[in-house]
Amino acid sequence: MDDEIRKAAYKRWEDEGHPEGQHERHWREAEEEVRSKSTGVPQTWSSDHGGGVNPPSEGSALSEPSSAGELASENK
Predict the structure, then answer these.
(1) pTM, whole model, 2 decimals?
(2) Are 13 and 19 in contact, with CB atoms under 8 Å apart?
């Protein structure tokens, strides 16, 4: 399996124009690709895609403060 991953990572590196410092990302992406092929389940989500940001929950207000004083009080 490592040989398949190596070939896929190398292809990604070539396709991107031989960028320096991207070997870990290329390997990780190739590894996910090869593993999903071997399990038959496509990779549809990666922890890299969320960026750690959660959408607001229902009922949460996303309005801007009405005054500078209100903004200052929120930062305390």
Answers:
(1) 0.49
(2) yes
Report the alpha-carbon distance of residue 19 to residue 22 in Å, rounded.
6
Q: Is the dihedral of CA 50, 54, 58, 64 positive or negative?
A: negative
pLDDT tens, the chain, 76 aa long: 899 999 999 999 999 999 999 999 999 999 999 999 887 765 555 555 555 555 555 655 555 555 555 555 555 5
Who contacts 31 (Cβ-Cβ below 8 Å, separation ≥6)?
Answer: 5, 9
Distance CA 21, CA 24 (A): 8
